[in-house]
Amino acid sequence: MKKHLIVLFFFITLMAAHAAAEQPLDWPAVEKLHRLTRISVKTQQRTICIFEKATDEKLFCRGEQNKDLEFNRAEIREVRIAPYDWSQGPPLVFAAEGGGGVDSAGQPTSFGGVKVGDLIVLDLQYDRIQGKSGFTTEGSAMLPLFRVPRPLEDKNKKYLKVYAEPGLGYRAGGGAFGGYTSAKVMLALFSDERWGKPMPYIEVQRRFPFDSPMQGDTRVAIGVMIAMCRHCGAD
Question: Per the count of CB atoms within 10 A, which of 94, 113, 139, 231 is most buried?
Answer without folding.
Answer: 113
